[in-house]
TrEMBL record:
The lineage of its organism: Bacteria, Pseudomonadati, Bacteroidota, Flavobacteriia, Flavobacteriales. It comes from Paenimyroides marinum. Homodimer. This is Glycine--tRNA ligase. It is an enzyme of class 6 (ligase). InterPro entries: aa-tRNA-synt_IIb, aa-tRNA-synth_II, aa-tRNA-synth_II/BPL/LPL, Anticodon-bd, Anticodon-bd_dom_sf, Gly-tRNA_synthase/POLG2, Gly_tRNA_ligase_bac, GlyRS-like_core. ATP binds at residues 250-252, 260-265, 332-333, 376-379. GO terms for biological process: diadenosine tetraphosphate biosynthetic process; glycyl-tRNA aminoacylation. Belongs to the class-II aminoacyl-tRNA synthetase family. Its main location: cytoplasm.
Protein backbone atom coordinates (compact mmCIF):
# COMPACT_ATOMS: atom_id res chain seq x y z
CA UNK A 1 0.00 0.00 0.00
CA UNK A 2 2.80 2.36 0.92
CA UNK A 3 4.44 1.61 -2.41
CA UNK A 4 1.25 2.54 -4.29
CA UNK A 5 1.03 5.79 -2.33
CA UNK A 6 4.65 6.56 -3.19
CA UNK A 7 3.98 5.87 -6.88
CA UNK A 8 1.03 8.26 -6.82
CA UNK A 9 3.09 10.96 -5.09
CA UNK A 10 5.74 10.55 -7.78
CA UNK A 11 3.08 10.96 -10.48
CA UNK A 12 1.86 14.23 -8.96
CA UNK A 13 5.40 15.52 -8.44
CA UNK A 14 6.56 14.58 -11.95
CA UNK A 15 3.48 16.18 -13.52
CA UNK A 16 4.40 19.51 -11.93
CA UNK A 17 8.17 19.34 -12.37
CA UNK A 18 7.95 18.61 -16.10
CA UNK A 19 5.22 21.07 -17.01
CA UNK A 20 2.15 18.84 -17.24
CA UNK A 21 -0.15 19.93 -14.39
CA UNK A 22 0.05 22.81 -11.90
CA UNK A 23 -2.16 23.47 -8.86
CA UNK A 24 -4.58 26.23 -9.84
CA UNK A 25 -3.86 29.73 -8.46
CA UNK A 26 -0.79 28.33 -6.70
CA UNK A 27 0.61 31.77 -5.81
CA UNK A 28 -2.53 32.20 -3.67
CA UNK A 29 -2.07 28.75 -2.06
CA UNK A 30 -4.24 27.04 -4.66
CA UNK A 31 -7.85 25.96 -4.79
CA UNK A 32 -8.93 22.51 -3.63
CA UNK A 33 -9.49 19.97 -6.42
CA UNK A 34 -8.82 22.50 -9.20
CA UNK A 35 -5.80 22.17 -11.50
CA UNK A 36 -4.27 23.91 -14.51
CA UNK A 37 -2.87 22.00 -17.48
CA UNK A 38 0.64 23.30 -18.17
CA UNK A 39 2.53 23.59 -21.45
CA UNK A 40 3.09 19.85 -21.90
CA UNK A 41 -0.14 18.81 -20.21
CA UNK A 42 -2.28 20.85 -22.59
CA UNK A 43 -0.60 19.12 -25.56
CA UNK A 44 -1.10 15.63 -24.10
CA UNK A 45 -4.72 16.45 -23.28
CA UNK A 46 -5.33 17.79 -26.80
CA UNK A 47 -3.78 14.68 -28.35
CA UNK A 48 -5.97 12.36 -26.23
CA UNK A 49 -9.06 14.35 -27.24
CA UNK A 50 -8.12 14.18 -30.92
CA UNK A 51 -7.39 10.45 -30.69
CA UNK A 52 -10.88 9.93 -29.26
CA UNK A 53 -12.53 12.26 -31.80
CA UNK A 54 -10.89 10.61 -34.79
CA UNK A 55 -11.91 7.14 -33.60
CA UNK A 56 -15.44 8.15 -32.61
CA UNK A 57 -16.46 10.69 -35.28
CA UNK A 58 -14.11 10.61 -38.24
CA UNK A 59 -14.04 6.81 -38.46
CA UNK A 60 -17.84 6.44 -38.27
CA UNK A 61 -20.00 7.73 -41.13
CA UNK A 62 -23.09 7.77 -38.91
CA UNK A 63 -21.62 9.77 -36.00
CA UNK A 64 -21.32 13.57 -36.00
CA UNK A 65 -20.16 16.05 -33.41
CA UNK A 66 -21.59 19.14 -31.75
CA UNK A 67 -20.41 21.68 -29.17
CA UNK A 68 -23.37 22.65 -26.97
CA UNK A 69 -23.18 25.57 -24.56
CA UNK A 70 -22.33 25.17 -20.89
CA UNK A 71 -25.37 27.28 -19.92
CA UNK A 72 -28.72 25.63 -20.64
CA UNK A 73 -32.30 26.51 -19.82
CA UNK A 74 -32.88 25.48 -16.19
CA UNK A 75 -35.84 23.25 -17.11
CA UNK A 76 -33.28 21.02 -18.88
CA UNK A 77 -32.02 19.86 -15.50
CA UNK A 78 -35.50 19.38 -14.09
CA UNK A 79 -36.37 17.15 -17.04
CA UNK A 80 -33.13 15.17 -16.79
CA UNK A 81 -33.68 14.44 -13.10
CA UNK A 82 -30.59 16.32 -11.92
CA UNK A 83 -32.53 18.84 -9.83
CA UNK A 84 -34.24 16.12 -7.82
CA UNK A 85 -31.87 13.17 -7.95
CA UNK A 86 -28.29 14.24 -8.68
CA UNK A 87 -26.99 13.45 -5.22
CA UNK A 88 -24.10 11.71 -3.49
CA UNK A 89 -24.57 9.84 -0.19
CA UNK A 90 -21.97 11.40 2.12
CA UNK A 91 -20.82 10.45 5.59
CA UNK A 92 -18.52 12.33 8.00
CA UNK A 93 -16.06 10.90 10.47
CA UNK A 94 -16.61 12.67 13.80
CA UNK A 95 -13.01 12.30 14.93
CA UNK A 96 -11.05 13.15 11.78
CA UNK A 97 -13.65 15.63 10.44
CA UNK A 98 -13.11 14.03 7.02
CA UNK A 99 -16.02 13.52 4.64
CA UNK A 100 -16.45 10.48 2.41
CA UNK A 101 -18.89 9.04 -0.09
CA UNK A 102 -20.64 6.23 1.74
CA UNK A 103 -21.03 4.11 -1.40
CA UNK A 104 -17.31 4.45 -2.23
CA UNK A 105 -16.31 3.31 1.27
CA UNK A 106 -18.46 0.20 0.83
CA UNK A 107 -17.26 -0.42 -2.74
CA UNK A 108 -13.62 -0.14 -1.60
CA UNK A 109 -14.33 -2.75 1.10
CA UNK A 110 -15.81 -5.03 -1.58
CA UNK A 111 -12.79 -4.44 -3.82
CA UNK A 112 -10.59 -5.90 -1.08
CA UNK A 113 -12.79 -9.02 -1.02
CA UNK A 114 -12.40 -9.30 -4.80
CA UNK A 115 -8.62 -8.94 -4.48
CA UNK A 116 -8.53 -11.72 -1.86
CA UNK A 117 -10.45 -13.97 -4.24
CA UNK A 118 -8.02 -13.11 -7.05
CA UNK A 119 -5.05 -14.03 -4.86
CA UNK A 120 -6.55 -17.47 -4.22
CA UNK A 121 -7.14 -17.90 -7.96
CA UNK A 122 -3.56 -16.84 -8.81
CA UNK A 123 -2.11 -19.25 -6.23
CA UNK A 124 -4.15 -22.09 -7.73
CA UNK A 125 -3.06 -21.15 -11.25
CA UNK A 126 0.58 -21.38 -10.23
CA UNK A 127 -0.02 -24.67 -8.44
CA UNK A 128 -1.94 -26.51 -11.18
CA UNK A 129 -0.46 -24.87 -14.30
CA UNK A 130 -2.08 -25.77 -17.63
CA UNK A 131 -4.48 -28.21 -15.95
CA UNK A 132 -6.13 -25.36 -14.01
CA UNK A 133 -9.87 -24.93 -14.63
CA UNK A 134 -10.55 -21.40 -13.41
CA UNK A 135 -14.33 -21.50 -13.80
CA UNK A 136 -14.62 -24.70 -11.76
CA UNK A 137 -12.24 -23.39 -9.10
CA UNK A 138 -14.20 -20.13 -8.72
CA UNK A 139 -17.44 -22.08 -8.40
CA UNK A 140 -16.19 -24.66 -5.87
CA UNK A 141 -13.32 -23.27 -3.80
CA UNK A 142 -14.80 -22.42 -0.37
CA UNK A 143 -12.70 -19.30 0.20
CA UNK A 144 -13.33 -17.84 -3.26
CA UNK A 145 -17.03 -18.62 -3.03
CA UNK A 146 -17.19 -16.95 0.39
CA UNK A 147 -15.34 -13.79 -0.73
CA UNK A 148 -17.39 -13.33 -3.90
CA UNK A 149 -20.77 -14.15 -2.35
CA UNK A 150 -20.08 -11.75 0.53
CA UNK A 151 -19.13 -9.04 -1.97
CA UNK A 152 -22.37 -9.61 -3.89
CA UNK A 153 -24.49 -9.62 -0.72
CA UNK A 154 -22.94 -6.35 0.53
CA UNK A 155 -23.40 -4.51 -2.77
CA UNK A 156 -26.99 -5.68 -3.12
CA UNK A 157 -27.80 -4.41 0.36
CA UNK A 158 -26.13 -1.07 -0.36
CA UNK A 159 -28.11 -0.70 -3.59
CA UNK A 160 -31.39 -1.44 -1.79
CA UNK A 161 -30.62 1.20 0.81
CA UNK A 162 -29.74 3.85 -1.77
CA UNK A 163 -32.68 2.99 -4.03
CA UNK A 164 -35.24 3.13 -1.22
CA UNK A 165 -33.65 6.08 0.55
CA UNK A 166 -32.90 3.96 3.63
CA UNK A 167 -29.68 5.79 4.45
CA UNK A 168 -29.80 4.54 8.04
CA UNK A 169 -29.24 1.01 6.74
CA UNK A 170 -26.33 2.22 4.59
CA UNK A 171 -24.72 3.61 7.75
CA UNK A 172 -25.54 0.39 9.62
CA UNK A 173 -23.83 -1.60 6.85
CA UNK A 174 -20.67 0.53 7.19
CA UNK A 175 -20.67 -0.05 10.95
CA UNK A 176 -21.37 -3.80 10.68
CA UNK A 177 -18.46 -4.22 8.24
CA UNK A 178 -16.18 -2.30 10.59
CA UNK A 179 -15.22 0.15 7.86
CA UNK A 180 -12.83 2.75 9.26
CA UNK A 181 -11.69 6.18 8.16
CA UNK A 182 -8.97 5.33 5.57
CA UNK A 183 -6.66 8.02 6.95
CA UNK A 184 -7.11 7.71 10.74
CA UNK A 185 -8.72 4.34 11.42
CA UNK A 186 -11.59 5.93 13.35
CA UNK A 187 -15.03 4.25 13.12
CA UNK A 188 -16.98 7.13 14.68
CA UNK A 189 -19.40 7.99 11.85
CA UNK A 190 -22.24 10.50 11.42
CA UNK A 191 -25.47 9.61 9.67
CA UNK A 192 -25.43 9.33 5.86
CA UNK A 193 -26.89 12.36 4.06
CA UNK A 194 -27.60 13.22 0.42
CA UNK A 195 -25.91 16.26 -1.19
CA UNK A 196 -26.87 17.72 -4.58
CA UNK A 197 -23.81 18.19 -6.78
CA UNK A 198 -24.89 20.98 -9.14
CA UNK A 199 -23.31 24.43 -9.14
CA UNK A 200 -25.89 27.21 -9.21
CA UNK A 201 -25.36 30.59 -10.86
CA UNK A 202 -27.46 33.48 -12.23
CA UNK A 203 -28.02 34.95 -15.68
CA UNK A 204 -29.17 38.56 -16.04
CA UNK A 205 -28.24 42.20 -15.73
CA UNK A 206 -29.78 42.80 -12.32
CA UNK A 207 -30.44 40.80 -9.18
CA UNK A 208 -34.20 41.38 -9.50
CA UNK A 209 -34.56 39.94 -12.98
CA UNK A 210 -31.71 37.38 -12.98
CA UNK A 211 -32.61 33.80 -13.91
CA UNK A 212 -31.34 30.94 -11.77
CA UNK A 213 -29.12 28.65 -13.85
CA UNK A 214 -26.79 25.73 -13.31
CA UNK A 215 -23.34 25.02 -14.67
CA UNK A 216 -23.91 21.79 -16.60
CA UNK A 217 -23.03 18.69 -14.56
CA UNK A 218 -22.70 16.60 -17.75
CA UNK A 219 -22.47 17.15 -21.51
CA UNK A 220 -25.11 14.57 -22.49
CA UNK A 221 -28.16 16.82 -22.15
CA UNK A 222 -26.78 19.26 -24.73
CA UNK A 223 -26.91 16.35 -27.18
CA UNK A 224 -30.44 15.28 -26.27
CA UNK A 225 -32.02 18.72 -26.64
CA UNK A 226 -30.34 19.02 -30.07
CA UNK A 227 -31.34 15.53 -31.22
CA UNK A 228 -33.94 16.69 -33.74
CA UNK A 229 -31.86 19.65 -34.98
CA UNK A 230 -28.93 17.36 -35.82
CA UNK A 231 -31.12 14.59 -37.23
CA UNK A 232 -32.97 16.88 -39.63
CA UNK A 233 -30.10 19.12 -40.74
CA UNK A 234 -27.75 16.16 -41.13
CA UNK A 235 -30.45 13.94 -42.69
CA UNK A 236 -29.37 11.27 -40.25
CA UNK A 237 -30.94 7.82 -40.24
CA UNK A 238 -31.29 5.54 -37.22
CA UNK A 239 -28.93 4.26 -35.94
CA UNK A 240 -26.72 7.33 -35.61
CA UNK A 241 -24.64 9.04 -32.96
CA UNK A 242 -23.86 12.54 -31.71
CA UNK A 243 -20.51 13.12 -30.01
CA UNK A 244 -19.32 15.97 -27.86
CA UNK A 245 -16.34 16.93 -25.73
CA UNK A 246 -16.48 19.72 -23.19
CA UNK A 247 -16.35 20.98 -19.63
CA UNK A 248 -18.74 19.84 -16.91
CA UNK A 249 -18.97 21.01 -13.31
CA UNK A 250 -19.87 19.14 -10.13
CA UNK A 251 -19.72 20.38 -6.56
CA UNK A 252 -17.81 17.30 -5.45
CA UNK A 253 -17.81 17.42 -1.66
CA UNK A 254 -15.21 14.67 -1.63
CA UNK A 255 -12.82 15.75 -4.38
CA UNK A 256 -9.45 14.06 -4.11
CA UNK A 257 -6.93 11.78 -5.83
CA UNK A 258 -5.39 14.56 -7.93
CA UNK A 259 -7.22 15.00 -11.27
CA UNK A 260 -9.26 11.80 -10.85
CA UNK A 261 -12.15 13.62 -9.18
CA UNK A 262 -12.35 17.36 -9.76
CA UNK A 263 -15.00 20.04 -9.59
CA UNK A 264 -14.26 21.24 -13.13
CA UNK A 265 -13.51 18.48 -15.60
CA UNK A 266 -13.88 17.49 -19.23
CA UNK A 267 -16.01 14.72 -20.68
CA UNK A 268 -15.91 12.95 -24.04
CA UNK A 269 -19.36 11.52 -24.70
CA UNK A 270 -21.28 9.94 -27.53
CA UNK A 271 -25.01 9.26 -27.54
CA UNK A 272 -26.02 6.58 -30.05
CA UNK A 273 -29.69 6.63 -31.08
CA UNK A 274 -31.20 3.25 -31.96
CA UNK A 275 -34.53 1.60 -32.66
CA UNK A 276 -36.32 0.43 -29.48
CA UNK A 277 -35.60 -3.24 -28.92
CA UNK A 278 -32.16 -3.06 -30.57
CA UNK A 279 -30.41 -1.25 -27.74
CA UNK A 280 -28.76 -4.32 -26.19
CA UNK A 281 -26.96 -5.37 -29.38
CA UNK A 282 -25.51 -1.85 -29.66
CA UNK A 283 -24.76 -1.79 -25.94
CA UNK A 284 -22.61 -4.92 -26.45
CA UNK A 285 -21.08 -3.45 -29.62
CA UNK A 286 -20.00 -0.25 -27.89
CA UNK A 287 -18.69 -2.13 -24.84
CA UNK A 288 -16.33 -4.11 -27.06
CA UNK A 289 -15.47 -1.21 -29.37
CA UNK A 290 -14.57 1.15 -26.55
CA UNK A 291 -12.41 -1.45 -24.80
CA UNK A 292 -10.54 -2.06 -28.08
CA UNK A 293 -9.93 1.70 -28.32
CA UNK A 294 -8.39 1.79 -24.85
CA UNK A 295 -6.29 -1.31 -25.54
CA UNK A 296 -4.93 0.30 -28.73
CA UNK A 297 -2.90 2.65 -26.52
CA UNK A 298 -0.81 -0.27 -25.31
CA UNK A 299 -1.08 0.37 -21.57
CA UNK A 300 -1.53 -3.34 -20.81
CA UNK A 301 -4.64 -5.54 -21.12
CA UNK A 302 -4.32 -6.52 -17.46
CA UNK A 303 -5.00 -2.91 -16.43
CA UNK A 304 -8.59 -2.91 -17.70
CA UNK A 305 -11.73 -4.70 -16.59
CA UNK A 306 -15.50 -4.38 -16.93
CA UNK A 307 -17.58 -3.69 -13.85
CA UNK A 308 -21.33 -4.14 -14.32
CA UNK A 309 -23.43 -1.81 -12.19
CA UNK A 310 -25.27 -3.28 -9.23
CA UNK A 311 -27.25 -0.04 -8.87
CA UNK A 312 -28.68 1.29 -12.14
CA UNK A 313 -29.37 4.98 -12.64
CA UNK A 314 -33.03 5.91 -12.96
CA UNK A 315 -32.69 6.21 -16.76
CA UNK A 316 -30.78 2.97 -17.50
CA UNK A 317 -31.67 -0.65 -18.21
CA UNK A 318 -28.00 -1.74 -18.45
CA UNK A 319 -24.72 -0.15 -17.41
CA UNK A 320 -21.09 -1.10 -17.11
CA UNK A 321 -17.83 0.69 -16.40
CA UNK A 322 -14.47 0.14 -18.02
CA UNK A 323 -12.24 0.31 -14.96
CA UNK A 324 -8.52 1.06 -15.05
CA UNK A 325 -5.83 0.06 -12.59
CA UNK A 326 -4.76 3.48 -11.29
CA UNK A 327 -2.00 3.80 -8.66
CA UNK A 328 -4.82 3.73 -6.08
CA UNK A 329 -6.54 0.64 -7.52
CA UNK A 330 -9.19 -0.17 -10.12
CA UNK A 331 -11.55 2.77 -10.64
CA UNK A 332 -14.03 3.89 -13.28
CA UNK A 333 -12.52 5.26 -16.48
CA UNK A 334 -15.44 5.08 -18.90
CA UNK A 335 -19.13 4.29 -18.61
CA UNK A 336 -21.28 2.54 -21.22
CA UNK A 337 -24.99 2.88 -20.49
CA UNK A 338 -28.23 1.86 -22.15
CA UNK A 339 -30.29 4.95 -21.27
CA UNK A 340 -33.56 3.68 -22.84
CA UNK A 341 -35.80 6.52 -24.11
CA UNK A 342 -35.84 8.31 -20.75
CA UNK A 343 -34.04 11.49 -21.78
CA UNK A 344 -35.87 12.25 -25.02
CA UNK A 345 -39.27 11.47 -23.48
CA UNK A 346 -38.51 13.63 -20.43
CA UNK A 347 -37.56 16.57 -22.66
CA UNK A 348 -40.69 16.01 -24.75
CA UNK A 349 -42.81 16.16 -21.63
CA UNK A 350 -41.18 19.29 -20.17
CA UNK A 351 -40.80 21.22 -23.44
CA UNK A 352 -44.05 20.24 -25.15
CA UNK A 353 -42.03 19.55 -28.35
CA UNK A 354 -41.83 16.19 -30.10
CA UNK A 355 -38.41 14.59 -30.18
CA UNK A 356 -39.12 11.62 -32.42
CA UNK A 357 -37.68 9.94 -35.50
CA UNK A 358 -39.91 9.35 -38.51
CA UNK A 359 -39.18 5.96 -40.07
CA UNK A 360 -39.92 6.08 -43.81
CA UNK A 361 -39.89 2.30 -44.05
CA UNK A 362 -42.65 1.75 -41.50
CA UNK A 363 -44.28 5.17 -42.02
CA UNK A 364 -44.34 5.68 -38.24
CA UNK A 365 -42.65 7.89 -35.66
CA UNK A 366 -40.98 6.70 -32.46
CA UNK A 367 -38.75 7.98 -29.67
CA UNK A 368 -35.34 6.33 -30.14
CA UNK A 369 -33.50 4.49 -27.39
CA UNK A 370 -29.99 5.66 -26.52
CA UNK A 371 -26.71 3.89 -25.84
CA UNK A 372 -24.14 6.19 -24.24
CA UNK A 373 -20.37 6.03 -24.02
CA UNK A 374 -18.85 8.57 -21.63
CA UNK A 375 -15.19 8.88 -20.69
CA UNK A 376 -13.55 11.46 -18.46
CA UNK A 377 -10.73 13.15 -20.34
CA UNK A 378 -8.94 14.08 -17.12
CA UNK A 379 -9.18 10.52 -15.81
CA UNK A 380 -7.87 9.21 -19.10
CA UNK A 381 -4.98 11.68 -18.87
CA UNK A 382 -4.19 10.35 -15.38
CA UNK A 383 -4.42 6.73 -16.56
CA UNK A 384 -2.01 7.32 -19.44
CA UNK A 385 0.39 9.47 -17.44
CA UNK A 386 0.54 7.28 -14.33
CA UNK A 387 1.09 4.07 -16.29
CA UNK A 388 3.73 5.70 -18.50
CA UNK A 389 5.88 6.98 -15.62
CA UNK A 390 8.55 4.37 -14.91
CA UNK A 391 11.87 4.03 -13.08
CA UNK A 392 14.27 1.77 -14.95
CA UNK A 393 17.55 0.18 -13.88
CA UNK A 394 19.94 0.04 -16.82
CA UNK A 395 22.62 -2.52 -17.67
CA UNK A 396 25.37 -0.40 -16.12
CA UNK A 397 23.45 -0.22 -12.81
CA UNK A 398 22.35 3.38 -13.27
CA UNK A 399 18.70 4.36 -13.26
CA UNK A 400 16.58 6.60 -15.43
CA UNK A 401 13.13 8.12 -15.07
CA UNK A 402 11.22 7.69 -18.30
CA UNK A 403 7.71 8.73 -19.28
CA UNK A 404 6.74 6.03 -21.80
CA UNK A 405 3.73 7.84 -23.19
CA UNK A 406 2.11 6.25 -26.24
CA UNK A 407 4.02 8.00 -29.03
CA UNK A 408 0.77 9.00 -30.72
CA UNK A 409 -0.14 11.05 -27.63
CA UNK A 410 3.27 12.47 -26.67
CA UNK A 411 3.27 16.30 -26.45
CA UNK A 412 6.60 16.60 -28.31
CA UNK A 413 7.38 13.97 -30.93
CA UNK A 414 11.08 14.69 -31.34
CA UNK A 415 13.83 16.82 -29.83
CA UNK A 416 16.67 17.98 -32.07
CA UNK A 417 20.04 18.24 -30.29
CA UNK A 418 23.22 19.74 -31.74
CA UNK A 419 26.16 17.84 -30.22
CA UNK A 420 27.94 21.13 -29.49
CA UNK A 421 26.91 24.79 -29.74
CA UNK A 422 29.40 25.65 -32.50
CA UNK A 423 30.85 24.56 -35.85
CA UNK A 424 27.53 25.13 -37.62
CA UNK A 425 25.74 22.28 -35.81
CA UNK A 426 23.02 24.49 -34.22
CA UNK A 427 22.23 25.91 -37.67
CA UNK A 428 21.71 22.43 -39.16
CA UNK A 429 19.57 21.46 -36.16
CA UNK A 430 17.41 24.53 -36.73
CA UNK A 431 17.01 23.60 -40.41
CA UNK A 432 15.77 20.13 -39.37
CA UNK A 433 13.26 21.70 -36.99
CA UNK A 434 12.03 24.05 -39.74
CA UNK A 435 11.33 21.02 -41.92
CA UNK A 436 9.74 18.77 -39.27
CA UNK A 437 7.54 21.35 -37.51
CA UNK A 438 5.02 21.33 -40.37
CA UNK A 439 4.06 17.77 -39.41
CA UNK A 440 5.09 17.34 -35.77
CA UNK A 441 5.52 19.18 -32.52
CA UNK A 442 9.31 19.30 -32.18
CA UNK A 443 11.73 20.92 -29.72
CA UNK A 444 15.27 22.26 -29.81
CA UNK A 445 17.59 21.42 -26.90
CA UNK A 446 21.25 22.49 -26.69
CA UNK A 447 21.86 22.90 -22.94
CA UNK A 448 24.04 20.36 -21.01
CA UNK A 449 25.89 17.27 -22.18
CA UNK A 450 24.00 15.17 -24.70
CA UNK A 451 23.50 12.33 -22.18
CA UNK A 452 21.77 14.67 -19.73
CA UNK A 453 19.61 15.98 -22.57
CA UNK A 454 18.58 12.41 -23.40
CA UNK A 455 17.53 11.87 -19.78
CA UNK A 456 15.58 15.13 -19.74
CA UNK A 457 13.68 14.19 -22.90
CA UNK A 458 13.05 10.69 -21.48
CA UNK A 459 11.42 12.28 -18.43
CA UNK A 460 9.36 14.59 -20.66
CA UNK A 461 8.09 11.61 -22.67
CA UNK A 462 9.62 12.61 -26.03
CA UNK A 463 9.70 9.48 -28.27
CA UNK A 464 12.72 10.53 -30.39
CA UNK A 465 15.95 12.46 -29.94
CA UNK A 466 17.78 13.53 -33.11
CA UNK A 467 21.46 14.36 -32.60
CA UNK A 468 23.32 16.53 -35.10
CA UNK A 469 27.11 15.97 -35.03
CA UNK A 470 30.13 16.69 -37.21
CA UNK A 471 29.43 13.71 -39.46
CA UNK A 472 26.09 15.37 -40.29
CA UNK A 473 28.01 18.15 -42.02
CA UNK A 474 29.74 15.60 -44.24
CA UNK A 475 26.96 13.19 -45.25
CA UNK A 476 23.65 14.73 -44.07
CA UNK A 477 22.98 11.88 -41.61
CA UNK A 478 21.99 12.13 -37.96
CA UNK A 479 21.63 9.83 -34.98
CA UNK A 480 18.01 9.09 -34.02
CA UNK A 481 17.51 7.66 -30.53
CA UNK A 482 14.35 5.76 -29.53
CA UNK A 483 13.07 6.65 -26.04
CA UNK A 484 11.76 3.24 -24.95
CA UNK A 485 14.66 1.06 -26.11
CA UNK A 486 17.41 3.74 -26.12
CA UNK A 487 18.46 2.19 -29.46
CA UNK A 488 20.31 4.58 -31.76
CA UNK A 489 20.30 4.48 -35.57
CA UNK A 490 22.23 6.47 -38.12
CA UNK A 491 19.77 7.75 -40.73
CA UNK A 492 19.57 10.31 -43.48
CA UNK A 493 17.94 13.65 -42.61
CA UNK A 494 15.56 13.05 -45.51
CA UNK A 495 14.27 9.86 -43.79
CA UNK A 496 13.34 11.53 -40.48
CA UNK A 497 9.80 12.53 -41.39
CA UNK A 498 8.80 8.99 -42.44
CA UNK A 499 10.50 7.34 -39.45
CA UNK A 500 8.72 9.60 -36.95
CA UNK A 501 5.38 9.40 -38.76
CA UNK A 502 5.48 5.61 -38.72
CA UNK A 503 5.59 5.68 -34.90
CA UNK A 504 3.23 8.56 -34.13
CA UNK A 505 0.50 8.52 -36.78
CA UNK A 506 -3.02 8.09 -35.45
CA UNK A 507 -3.83 5.92 -38.46
CA UNK A 508 -1.26 3.30 -37.45
CA UNK A 509 -2.33 3.31 -33.80
CA UNK A 510 -6.08 3.16 -34.45
CA UNK A 511 -5.66 0.28 -36.90
CA UNK A 512 -4.77 -1.86 -33.87
CA UNK A 513 -8.51 -1.85 -33.10
CA UNK A 514 -9.25 -4.04 -36.13
Amino acid sequence: MAKQEDIFKNVISHAKEYGYIFPSSEIYDGLSAVYDYAQNGVELKKNIREYWWKAMVQMHENIVGIDASIFMHPTTWKASGHVDAFNDPLIDNKDSKKRYRADVLIEDYCEKLWQKAQKEIEKAKNRFGDAFDEAQFVATNPRVVEYLSKKKEILERMVRGLDTGDLADVKALIEELGIADPETGSKNWTDVRQFNLMFGTKLGASADTAMDLYLRPETAQGIFVNFLNVQKTGRMKIPFGIAQTGKAFRNEIVARQFIFRMREFEQMEMQFFVKPGEEMQYYDYWKNTRLKWHLSLGLGNENYRFHDHEKLAHYANAATDIEFNFPFGFKELEGIHSRTDFDLKAHEQHSGKKLQFFDNETNASYVPYVVETSVGLDRLFLAVFSKALQEETLEDGSTRTVLKLPAVLAPTKAAVLPLVKKDGLPEVAREIIEELKWDFNVAYDEKDAVGRRYRRQDALGTPFCITVDHQTLEDKTVTIRHRDTMKQDRVSISELRNIINEEVSMRNWLQKMK
